[in-house]
Amino acid sequence: MPNAQRWAALAAAATTLIAVTATGCSSDSDSGKDAGSKAAKASPSGTPSPSSSSSSSPPGGGAVAIPAGPGPQGSYTVQNQPPPGTCSYRYTATKEPLPDPKCTPGATNPKVTQATLKTTICRSGYTSDIRPGTNITGREKTANAASYGYKGPMKDAEYDHLISLQLGGDPNDARNLWVQPPSPGHKAGAGPNNPKDVVESKLKAAICSGKTELVKAQQAIAKDWTTALSTLGLTNEKPAAKDPKAEDGE
Fold it and tell me: Biased composition, Low complexity: where in the chain (predicted)?
């Protein structure tokens, strides 16, 4: 089956799992360390991670479900991205970028659950242990930029986990990664300026302190990162303490 048809089929399956509004819809730069890749071997013929039967859904059921990815791997491979020009950015009223929900609905890490928080995202160093290396994400970023039609300087865009690693997002599922263009106020050539990172840090703090549940935070950030805090009543939350073993936006 041609790659375009295979991706279309996967996107259709993912769409049935997540309902994201047309106006709604972490951040990880591709400058990350190789920790977690463990001598990862690139595979240009790699395919997007298949949808899992498990998913992240609100307690008690709900209309929105986020597909679960394959989770952390001992060796990561380069994942196929949507065909060039098939994804479209959306923007909020304040011009903050949002991903295309058909291409980037998000995907969760099945190893991270409400019961495993202390040994996963609330443990220092967890995200650095599972993060793919730049030998993988660099090539994925280039291909995903073509998917979204991003034409700006690559150094100013962030290859971002929609549901960040520190919120239990899947490390390398193509459905959870997108080239995020700069936010308003960006200075050309200065590298990414991503206020989404602060939102993620506050959500992590709230999860680890018991102020909100993991699934609720994942749902909110996947729907629209700009409204996630207000949706959960966490606008006054302080960011999580800096993890010395993690990178900004993890």
Answer: 37-68
Crossing angle between the packed helical segments 196-208 and 214-223, to the nearest 10 degrees: 170
pLDDT tens digits, 174-195: 999 999 999 998 788 767 788 9
3-state DSSP assignment of residue 169 = strand
Q: How far is CA 171 from CA 62, 90, 94, 163, 202, in A?
A: 25, 23, 29, 9, 20
Task: For residues 190 and 250, give the distance between their C-alpha atoms in angstroms, rounded to a whole number.
Answer: 20
Alpha-helix residue ranges (DSSP H) falling in the chain? 3-17, 126-130, 134-148, 196-208, 214-223, 228-231
| Contacts of residue 227, Cβ cutoff 8 Å, sequence gap at least 6 | 24, 220
Residue 51: count other Cβ atoms within 10 Å of its Cβ.
Answer: 18
Average pLDDT of the residues in 77-91: 98
What's the pLDDT tens digit per position in 211-239? Answer: 999 999 999 999 999 999 999 999 999 99
* 35 CA to centre of own chain: 18
